[in-house]
Design brief:
With 526 residues, this protein is α+β, with helices and mostly antiparallel strands. It is built from 20 helices and 10 strands. The strands form 4 sheets. Strands 1-2-6-3 form a 4-stranded mixed beta sheet. The structure holds protoporphyrin IX containing FE. Protoporphyrin IX containing FE binds at residues 120-121, 133, 136, 140, 182, 303, 306-307, 310-311, 314, 370-371, 374-375, 377, 398, 436-439, 442-446, 449-450, 454. Heme binds at residue 444.
Amino acid sequence: MPESSTDFLSVAVGLFILVLLKKIFDSWKTTKGPYPPGPKPKFLIGNALDFPMNGIGQHFMKVGEQLQSGLVHLNILGNHTLFINKKNIADDLLEKRARIYSGRPHLTAVEALGWDTSNILIMGYGDEWRKHRKVAQQHLNKRQTRTYEHIQLRHLHKMLHRLLYSPEDFLQHTEVLSTAVVMDIMYGYQIDRHDDPANVAAEKMVALAVSLMLPGGALMNILPFLRHLPAWIPGNIAGKGVKDCLVWMHEMRDIPMADLRKRMDQGMATHSAVSACLEKNAASAVDTDPDAERVMCNIAWASYTAAVETTVSATGWFFYAMLLHPRVQRKAQAEIDSIIGAGRLPTFADRPSLPYIEAIYREVMRYAPPLYVGFTHSSTEDDWYDGYFIPKGTSVFANLWAMTHNEGVYPDADTFNPERFLDEHGELNDDDNILAYGFGRRACVGKHVASATMWITIVSVLACFMIEHPKDEQGNEIEVDNECEYLGLVMRKKPFKCRFVPRSEGARRLVEEATLDVGTSQTHFL
Ligand code: HEM
């Protein structure tokens, strides 16, 4: 290793230790009250070793049960962290005291990427976030989402077609569906292939960003001055990560924007959130908000970062649950056949008439909430709750896993059972609050789009296919494991195999006809 980089590493490690010690001593200085219960901290490192790499939702649910507490507090190298395991406490803190608990942790890597002012998901709580949230709400509210149904249906029909011809790639098809819906709503940009350049850039960007966003994922999050070091310096992994991430981010933003501007110039642009904003600005020379375009474009690309992995995770868990529960599939298909029949594909108008399908949707979101500990909130003031002190700057996680697996509320919680959302007459009960979308002012702003995409996927796949176990060469069924994997805070089912068998020739014909209706040739999107 060259001498200069050895020197650099020694200085960086020395500073790292100093900063750490200061943080740890600062975090001990408080005399304001006891922290909420938690594992006993060790000298200097606090609870650093009590934090598992994966499965934090499940782990801190157990810790909370052992401590008989709905709150679990940790001090990780001087950073206060709080897991909320009970819904009533999340309501008290994240909803009723939203003014204090709507921040996001400050990370240097986020600043280096410019995401503190451009990505609503990770922005601090303040005027800039409010401005972005307002625009996001305008385009993603319940009423507006109804106007996107034709977009969702069109992309869903393409996915059904792909399931006919390359069922083994079903996980890729769900990725294309979730990306295509968001990119179409935002830019009118058409994604029909997994290797679409905007999709590839977006995937690479998210993969890099996820590791940089973790507090310990980049050294610069602990030693902020490191962000100013050139990316080429050996050992500056985070610096290189930020540089590459910026390249992919610009690519994913520029490709759909360039495509949209070209279509607008040619008079060929379909209506989209961004085109509407650009047209409005172009039409009114006076009284325009000069910032409107910037904020709209930020919402457009940032929606991708919030929407895709979550929707893909939920769809993956749906396929897996169906594979394990043929009884649920048969019951759902009986409901579809009795209400819709075999002569057409489902539409959104069918939603109120299909309680069992709705119950499956609710159960998928309960059984495996994709952001299983929510997204990190950060407190912006000192606070006290139930006699415990919660210092300003605490990272707060709504442990959605613990809340959706609370045996007192959802008995036999690890079992997939849609009936838990139905009453004795088979009608939906009043448990319609989908906890998987989070709490308070930072709750998922895209939940209506997500709900519609999930629902139409569930009902349409069940209307057309049997989801069955894979078979070996001798025709014996192969068991599928129950392992999951973690991408940052997203929990996904580990890739698995299953078969999509068309329910009938009629179902196959309906899928073929639906894709002819959308005017897309088979080769265009296979
Ligand atoms: C099944 C799919 C989805 C799930 C489970 C989900 C869940 C969540 C959760 C738990 C949060 C964080 C809430 C918190 O901080 O307490 C969130 C935030 C967010 N979601 Fe979703 N989401 C999904 C799909 C979508 C879609 C399709 C969009 C956009 C079209 C979207 C846009 C956003 C945005 C912009 C935020 C950040 C809101 C803010 O910080 O103010 N999400 N989502």
